[in-house]
Amino acid sequence: MPVIEAKDLNLTFQTNDGPVHALKDVNLAIEKGEFVSFIGPSGCGKTTFLRCIAALETPTGGSLTVNGMSPDDARKARSYGYVFQAAGLYPWRTIAGNIKLPLEIMGYSRAEMDQRVEKVLDLVDLGGFGKKFPWQLSGGMQQRASIARALAFDAEILLMDEPFGALDEIVRDKLNEELLKLWKRTEKTIGFVTHSIPEAVYLSTKIVVMSPRPGRITDVIDSTLPRDERPLEIRDSAEFLAIAHRVREGLRAGHAYDE
Amino acid sequence: MKSVLPILTVLAAIVVIWYGAAVGLNSKWTYDQAARAGQDVSFSQLVTDTMTQERPVLPAPHQVAKGLWEGVAGQKITSKRSLVYHGGVTFSATMAGFVLGAVAGILLAVGIVHNRAMDMSVMPWAIASQTIPILAIAPMVIVVLASLGIKGLLPKAIIAAYLSFFPILVGMVKGLRAPDGMQLDLLRTYNASGSETFWKLRLPSSMPYFFASLKVGIAAALVGTIVAELPAGATQGLGARLLSGSYYGQTIQIWAALFAAAALAAVLVIVVGAIEKVVLRKMGMAR
């Protein structure tokens, strides 16, 4: 059974300029352990779709299940961790304190919290930084801390909304590499929104290409790249470039009747 | 040193202008006296006389300084002439009103942020309350409460609270709403309750706004207390000192009381600022 399944999903926002069709007839199934990227120009509904999965938006039509439940039940069951565009760490809490935030809300014991903080800080390569305040860390480190925060509790799904969009390319490459390692170690199902073609192709087992007005899926590409071993150099291989080409074609097709 | 020089320059300029104004404003009395005695007044006589009048229109700076010094250090602090005594009376009512106002402002802000009905209904009233001249309602409050047998500190504290709750209310509403959509969404993904959102996100986020509004609020509380001390009957406090000074034309006494009030306000704001620094540093929000 798929972990996330959307059938004929529709979402229309009512705005002052009339209705906006943010998602139109979206059909998608995400299996356990997949790394799925959503790529498309702004306004294509990729973030909206992710927010629907997280029950931060409510679809106006069709069905959507997460872990076999409605998205809202899945949210209440704390089935996913969500990483936003900005790290959004609380400036008045240390890094460890920020990671404890979801654990406090979910009622973990003090000893368990400390142990988990230690574990996830190591997982994102921030061991020893627990006592620092967010402003003492670089942007990339802050974003890693926010990923650690999403990993601290045992959600099997990790939803990431352009987490590295605000970082420079060198830091982004490094974090992409680390994210793949982390995905392999934790075996989580990851939904990842991006507008970078190399990032989507490099990370994903499945790439969902979307286009705007109305927001819809134009192509779903199952990656042929090896799942276990993906060094950064793989981005120069012919196979990689072929997938990137197909993504670009899909994006262009979506733009065809834009005018 | 660099910051001291401009301050001293401005201060010197103010003193010079003040002395000039004192000569100009007080000269009428000097000329009248001289005319009555049928004498002429030379310029140097004019200057010395305008500096040393008993009840000048505008006392010269050194007269005010002398009055202030005598009021603060020249009396036993229990004396009715001591500015320390009157300042203490005003201070206690200010603090009582400030605490009342802060509590009321915070509670109303919490209600406004969490309750849509309160959001729609309370704010217009709060704004309307501040458009009524405090000078007009202060005597009524004092008289009404006095008829109920409530005298002394409490009526003054209520008027101080009336002025100080508003900036704290506005600051706290702004502060409690400071978290952006993303931060609220994050807590939603954890399925956090309303009270968890309040204690873990809204309240800590509001702290910088809170302290900024406290500084305005404590100064407003002092103004409220002094205004409350003006209506007839008050015999204690800096406001009463201002009033009796104006009854008997004791301009030096008025100015000395004014400066005492200004100094008190400055000290209060500085104290709040110091507390702000300590708290924000402990929270890790000051760099």
From TrEMBL, chain A:
CDD domains on file: ABC_NrtD_SsuB_transporters (cd03293)
Domain of life per record: Bacteria
GO molecular function (one): ATP binding
Domain ABC transporter, first and last residues per copy: 4-237
Keyword hit for Transport: yes
UniProt cross-references to Pfam families, sorted A to Z: ABC_tran
InterPro entries with a match to the protein in the record: AAA+_ATPase (IPR003593), ABC_transporter-like_ATP-bd (IPR003439), ABC_transporter-like_CS (IPR017871), ABC_transporter_ATP-bind (IPR050166), P-loop_NTPase (IPR027417)
Keyword terms, alphabetized: ATP-binding, Nucleotide-binding, Transport
UniProt record similarity statement: Belongs to the ABC transporter superfamily.
Listed name of the protein: ABC transporter ATP-binding protein
Source organism per UniProt: Rhodobacter flavimaris
TrEMBL record, chain B:
Localization per Swiss-Prot or TrEMBL: Cell membrane
Signal peptide residues on this chain, from the entry's feature table: none
Family matches, as InterPro entries: MetI-like, MetI-like_sf
Classification via PROSITE patterns: ABC_TM1
Domain ABC transmembrane type-1 residues, every copy: 83-276
Membrane protein topology class: Multi-pass membrane protein
Domain of life, source organism: Bacteria
Pfam families tied to this protein: BPD_transp_1 (PF00528)
Membrane-traversing stretches: 89-113, 125-147, 153-173, 209-232, 252-275
Keywords from the named record: Cell membrane, Membrane, Transmembrane, Transmembrane helix, Transport
PANTHER family: ABC TRANSPORTER PERMEASE PROTEIN HI_0355-RELATED (PTHR30151:SF20), ALKANE SULFONATE ABC TRANSPORTER-RELATED, MEMBRANE SUBUNIT (PTHR30151)
Family designation: Belongs to the binding-protein-dependent transport system permease family.
Record-given protein name: ABC transporter permease
